[in-house]
Request: fold
Amino acid sequence: MAFREINSKMVEATVVPGQRLFSQRGAMLAYRGEVSFTPNIQGGQGGIMSMIGRRVAGEATPLMSVEGSGTVLFGHGGHHVQVVHLTGDTLYVEADRLLAFEGTLQQGTMFMGAQGGVMGMVRGQVTGQGLFTTTLKGHGAVAVMAHGGVFELPITPQRPVHVDPQAYVAHHGDVRNKLSTALGWRDMVGRGSGEAFQLELSGSGTVYVQASEEKL
Amino acid sequence: MFRMQGSKVLAVDMTGDAVKAKNGSMVAYDGQMAFKKLSGGGEGLRGMVTRRLTGEQMTVMEVRGQGTCWFADRASEINLVRLQGDKLYVESSNLLATDAGLRTGTTFTGLRGATQGNGLFTTTVEGHGQAAITSDGPAVVLRVSPQYPLTVDPGAYIAHQGNVRQSFQSGVTFRTFLGEGGGEAFQIRFEGDGLVYVQPSERNTVAGDL
Reply:
């Protein structure tokens, strides 16, 4: 495996020749061996067109590619790091939560409206995540950041899971998301319970939730 | 049923019953849940008047439904407290969730409150059931017995339960006025029989500056 969790806030990545890693720019803490860090103006994989796509989508986090042979330690801002292993499925995650991922994964940008229609767009606005989200597909490992610890919740067709949009970190699997509102007259008169918007995830897969309502 | 999922997430399994929780502290749920805002400081008109007067207005919501609900508050550590007819005194900002069967109220704390930077009033929780309190860092539970009184920094105090008398101690000397204080000008002294919860972190208090 490319990533090894040193403690809850640091991961160690093994870099071997011919295999590339991508990481958030400036997230390297230390390294051993011959490793080079190249700032990636395109902000990820793909050609110029994907770069433009990401710029337009506002999902362009400054990334760097890591190549060579050795081990690299990654960490950022004292946030908790969770390693997610993908085996052919797709992980949906916000670009600014991505710490590092293997080059074998295919990076893409998804329009939130494509999943959940108009409410998907509203969700993007409400959660402050914008209308687009980053997808990672294929076989490999991803290191995702979160404030506080992360816990996994399984989603099964019988049991949809509702998540506070601010506490949502990432999800993978065959999952549909939609924004459900519980807006009542109480919210209008300022007596809301603070849980007016929830992200409803249904289907089968896993959602990662952080122990905090703070955004990164 | 309250159970911990790690040290920072509280999972509550519900079967049609209800819990009271801090407003906006839900992070996820499955099943069917309804959220309704309540107000702390006791029920009814009397509760409303106390809230207005004391400023100890914790905004609470009532969560009712079937399934599991997960609560967390800004990645702070959570401690479970079991109450068997006794009374828990806790700062309203440190109270995360309680069983619906527990009564919450407000009491006057005297001079101690002012030094804690939390106002002159504190929240009480009473009855039979479980409560979850938050702390900045893992809290330690210290026992107070008649032979062994306990003295606590006001900024690190989060809650206490049992039959405990508290008094306020000041170590202010002329050095404090010269700006040479040790940073521990005020303390709370607990005497009697009970438990005190202390966090490994200090809030900003008047005492900390002296």
